[in-house]
Amino acid sequence: MKKLLIRLLAAMSIAHISLITASAAWAAPCELKVCVQVVTDPATNQIVITAVQNKPGSTAKPKPKATRVARKYTPRPYTPKPVAPKPVATKKYTPRPKVSKKPIPKVAVSLKPKVVAAVSLSDRLTELLPQRTLFYAPKSGAVVQVPMYFWTDATSTFSTTSLILGISVGVTLTPTFTWNFGDGTSFTTDKPGAAYPDTTISHTYRAAGTYKATLMISWAGTWSAESYIYPVLGGNIVQNYSATYVLSNAPTKFIK
């Protein structure tokens, strides 16, 4: 009984540690310099990258505003010295002394700081997946009981890197190809196929007629920033393509 209880407690501890580790990993996008999120928009086949960065408020350096106080100037009274009368011929002129003005003293300036509110920076980038083409062969003269070959020019991986608010964000998507050959049969693969002699994607029809082949490419993947890796949310991006062609019965020839 004790051994069973010890094992149960150990299992609960491991599960608790795993939950904490997983929570820390999923919280990591906002542990970066900015909060980054990457989602898909299946309606427009776009990858949407958003980033938000909050900068704390700061105090700007205020400009001094001086208050000047006018000071009234009062000149000194002038009292001339008495001069003894002298003969007119020997009278000497004594000029009044010059009075120097004192400069107006500078008045202290009171500074009032201006507070700047917090700034919120955000940015949004979108990346559109390129359009692809569906190929098939033979383009004409196809007949029943002879294989037709299909492929697309889509790559096996789509990668893009964007710089948003100083953070380098890389996105990697991989496709799943689902072919429907128009006669009730389908085929799913992770390879785009290629022209003959590659036979990765081929189909043989059993009856003559007009057929419409469709290709659905479903993209999903991950994004990364500063050594962290996360899944791209929002659902898969789906691209659909189609082609219509006619198959005839093979010519017959009787041999004796």
Could you characterize the architecture of this molecule?
- The protein is 10% helix and 39% strand.
- By secondary structure, the protein is mainly beta.
- It has a domain at 27-57 and 115-247: Immunoglobulin-like.
- β1 and β2 (46-55) form a beta hairpin.
- The radius of gyration is 44 Å and the shape is rod-shaped.
Q: Which CATH architecture of the domain at 27-57 and 115-247?
A: Sandwich
The Rg value, from CA coordinates, equals 44 Å
What structural category do the secondary elements indicate? mainly beta
Query: What share of the residues does DSSP label as strand, in percent?
Result: 35-45%
Q: Please write the CATH class name of the domain at 27-57 and 115-247.
A: Mainly Beta
Tally the beta strands: 14
End-to-end Cα distance, whole Å, is: 88 Å
What is the CATH homologous superfamily assignment of the domain at 27-57 and 115-247? Immunoglobulins
Give a short account of the largest sheet: 6 strands, antiparallel
Order of helices and strands: HEEEEEEEEEEEEEE
Outline: rod-shaped
Low-confidence stretches: 8-28, 58-62, 113-118
Helix content: under 10%
Number of continuous helical runs: 1
What name does CATH use for the topology of the domain at 27-57 and 115-247? Immunoglobulin-like
Rounded mean pLDDT is 77
